[in-house]
Amino acid sequence: MMYLEYQLVRSNRRKTVALQVKNAQVIVRAPDYVDVEYIDNLIRLKSAWLTKKLSQQQSSSNVPPQCLNNNFSCDKPLYIDGVAHNVVVCFGRQSVIHDKKEKLLRIFIALKYRQYETNSAIINEKVKSAIEQWFKVSMYDYLSHRIPMLSETTLLHAKSFKVRKYKARWGSCNNRGELSFNCLLKMLPLWVVDYVIVHELCHLKHMNHSTKFWQLVEQYNPQFKLAKAWLKQNQASLSWH
Ligand SMILES: [Zn+2]
Predict the structure, then answer these.
(1) pTM for this entry
(2) How much distance in Å is there from the Cα of 65 to the middle of ligand 1?
């Protein structure tokens, strides 16, 4: 499934496909004959690099987008790092700003959507995808420094990791040593995220849920039972739209 939005620029003169991240936006330049499926696939393959670039540019852009009018708040709180946040939607240059202190997630959606009702399906869809994209970028950012830290303690090193949206799992590990994490982990308290990371790292040694596996998890995450219980208790309420 595709998740990174991109702008496609076609050109007759091009012979190759080029990916670029500019102004926190993915731009694909491609010859006319290259089909969209090929491009989607390329985006998928390069998603780790692209999300990293996007996140760098989003955090380094120091010009705050202008909040024009039609501000509105979503009625349901959104959990970020285990803390309930309010979501405020504005129209302006597309971006997402996290105000930790105010417990606020400010979502800017493109001006052209200002014509729609704030509770219309199209606006809801835009807000939903902006949150999802932000979850992916910030989770990727967090994991790219947290996994190496936990690998150092556990001496378990994954070959790579990726962040996706999954419906029914928090993480996974395949037999090539590649880890996957659910972007919805962004909603969980960090101590629970740590458990999920350690759990997947331990699968690099034991590809099962044997006693030995759980002993290894406990060794590096002594409170794993609390985290498991937390997940069991909260899983159902962790929806955000
Ligand atoms: Zn497992």
Answers:
(1) 0.69
(2) 42
